[in-house]
Amino acid sequence: MKISQLIIMFSLLTTSFFWGQSPEYQKKKAEKIQMNSVFTKIINRELKATIVYEDKDIIAFFPLRPQAPIHLLIVPKKEIHTINDVSEEDTLLLGKLFLVAKKLAKEQGISETGYRLSININEDAGQSVFHLHMHLLGGKNLGPMVTQE
């Protein structure tokens, strides 16, 4: 085997070790994906939620643990685990998420003062529900998105 092939193989093996998801996270993620997500249960009315918007494609509701005075979760009814799992057929659905966010921000009185839209993807972003969703946050100065160093 050539040295260049060994270097490439070593790089591939160590990349997932140093920059991939931890084994614990991968296990928890796989287990959660096997079950219906909490959002699917809300969509199917198996769990209660305070719903503020719903159409055939999207549902929006207040989370159990709000992170800002205005905090809504905007969720496609199609279960997509992460942004990494979207396909071109999801283009209109993703665009609709933003249009619903704009509508809800206006209804909640934060469209002019400002708001944040956030989508967490996998371990380093803290994704814990593996059903794509957008957070709409506002109602106060939210500060920087991440700690400034």
TrEMBL record:
Which SUPFAM superfamilies does this entry report, sorted A to Z?
HIT-like
Alphabetical list of Gene3D superfamilies matching this protein: HIT-like
Instruction: Please name the GO terms that the record assigns under molecular function.
Output: catalytic activity
Matches recorded under CDD domains: PKCI_related
* Residues annotated as domain HIT: 38-147
Q: Which PROSITE patterns match?
A: HIT_1 (PS00892), HIT_2 (PS51084)
Any Pfam family the entry gives: HIT
Record-given protein name: HIT domain-containing protein
Annotated source species: marine sediment metagenome
